[in-house]
């Protein structure tokens, strides 16, 4: 009589080994998910449909999907849109998705972009939908917000804390440079929480879905200047602006920017060799009343007023 180990005995006592569905078992045999690419396939059809509904996809829309994986969301959008452009970095997933739609009526509506979306030139699209690889969340948000022509809406899945930063308000613990810049360029709303068990394999963090609508026309600012100011202000967000700006590295940077601006102005502006930028900076902080304020309490209008006040005395941030 053969001898059985503890594992085999437990299996027999429970009626035999438990086997997943044929579809899941086949998927796990054929695809090993790559953690380096942040691959977590969204498997809950109710969440998939909820994301599509929040995007309001129309039959005239070109949809840009980032990280389609095996295509659980893609195939649904192909049925209701004009076209889906799916951007995928993993050639195995590309082959899986192409095989899934091959020979179907929607095959001609799918276009694949293979490679890193951050390095790609994005095509025209009306709607962006993504189960986002979390490690590229921040650069991707600003890549699409600065993309032209404007898209109508983006519905994106992020790590929960990142999503909370996007929608945070002045005074919130998570309010930061990301919050200010995103809200300056768009209207952003938290629309859905997604638990980790809705993915295969489950990630280590909870997720959330946000809806982003770009402001069109965009705000009348030089975004590089705006971001430079916000970056300095949030470098030490718990300190007052006066304390943040008086550091030597900040003054050196602002004086360098000032001299470059003056030399390239039309006509050029003469700057004395002994010129110092510090008095001009603190005059602005004093006159506007922002010197004793902290970045974490300032809203968009506050930063806009401060940027305009600095521009009047040629203090530049980029």
Explain this structure.
- With 318 residues, the protein is an alpha/beta fold.
- It folds into two domains: 193 residues, Vaccinia Virus protein VP39 (Rossmann fold, 3-Layer(aba) Sandwich); 90 residues, Helicase, Ruva Protein, domain 3 (Orthogonal Bundle), CATH 1.10.8.480.
- The protein has 13 helices and nine strands.
- It has a seven-stranded mixed beta sheet. Strands 1-8 form a two-stranded antiparallel ribbon.
- The longest helix is centred in the C-terminal third of the chain and has 17 residues.
- 31% of the residues are buried.
- About 7% of the residues have low confidence.
Question: What is the structure about, briefly put?
Answer:
The protein is α/β, with parallel strands linked by helices and 318 residues long. 41% of the residues lie in helices and 15% in strands.
Would you spell out the secondary-structure blueprint of this structure?
Elements: H1 6-13, H2 22-30, E1 41-42, H3 45-55, E2 62-66, H4 74-80, E3 83-88, H5 91-101, E4 110-114, E5 127-131, H6 137-145, E6 153-159, H7 160-167, H8 177-185, E7 186-194, E8 199-200, E9 207-214, H9 223-235, H10 241-245, H11 248-264, H12 278-288, H13 300-312
Parallel strand pairs: 2-3, 2-5, 3-4, 5-6
Antiparallel strand pairs: 1-8, 6-9, 7-9
Helix pairs in contact: 12-13
Descriptors:
318 residues; alpha/beta; Rossmann fold; Helicase, Ruva Protein, domain 3; 2 domains; 7-stranded mixed beta sheet; two-stranded antiparallel ribbon; 9 strands; 15% strand
Largest β sheet strand count, sense and barrel closure: 7 strands, mixed
Number of strands: 9
Please bin the fraction of helical residues: 40-55%
Q: Structural class of the secondary elements? A: alpha/beta
What fold name stands as the CATH topology of the largest domain?
Answer: Rossmann fold
**Assembly category:** single chain
Provide the CATH top-level class of the largest domain.
Alpha Beta
Low-confidence stretches: 7-29
The number of domains is: 2
For the CA atoms, what is the radius of gyration?
A: 26 Å
In terms of DSSP E residues, the strand content is 15-25%
Cα(first) to Cα(last) distance is 80 Å
Question: How does CATH name the architecture of the largest domain?
Answer: 3-Layer(aba) Sandwich
């Amino acid at each position: 009589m053969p001898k059985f180990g503890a594992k085999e005995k437990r299996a027999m006592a429970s009626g035999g080994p438990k086997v997943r569905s044929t579809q899941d078992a086949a998927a796990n045999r054929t695809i090993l998910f790559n953690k380096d690419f942040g691959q977590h396939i969204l498997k809950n059809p109710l969440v998939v449909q909820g994301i599509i509904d929040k995007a309001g996809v129309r039959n005239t829309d070109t949809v840009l999907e980032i990280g389609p994986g095996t295509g659980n969301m893609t195939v649904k959008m192909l049925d209701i849109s004009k076209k889906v452009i799916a951007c995928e970095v993993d050639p195995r997933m590309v082959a899986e998705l192409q095989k899934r739609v091959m020979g179907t009526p929607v095959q001609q509506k799918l276009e694949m972009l293979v490679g890193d979306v951050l390095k790609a030139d994005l095509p025209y699209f009306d709607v962006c939908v993504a189960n986002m690889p979390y490690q590229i969340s921040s650069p991707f948000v600003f890549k699409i917000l600065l993309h032209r022509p404007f898209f109508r809406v983006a519905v994106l899945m992020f790590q929960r804390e990142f999503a909370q930063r996007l929608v945070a308000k002045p005074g919130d613990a998570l309010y930061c440079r990301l919050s200010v810049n995103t809200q300056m360029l768009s209207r952003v709303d938290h629309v859905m929480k997604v638990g980790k068990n809705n993915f295969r394999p489950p990630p280590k963090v909870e997720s959330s879905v946000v809806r982003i609508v770009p402001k069109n026309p965009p705000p009348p600012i030089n975004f590089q200047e705006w971001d430079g100011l916000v970056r300095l202000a949030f470098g030490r967000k718990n300190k007052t602006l006066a304390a943040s700006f008086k550091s030597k590295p900040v003054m050196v940077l602002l004086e360098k920017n000032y001299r470059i601006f003056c030399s390239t102005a039309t006509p050029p502006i003469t700057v004395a060799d002994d010129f110092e930028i510090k008095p001009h900076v603190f005059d602005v902080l004093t006159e506007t009343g922002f010197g004793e304020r902290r970045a974490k309490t300032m809203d968009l209008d506050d930063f806009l007023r401060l940027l305009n006040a600095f521009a009047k005395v040629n203090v530049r941030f980029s």
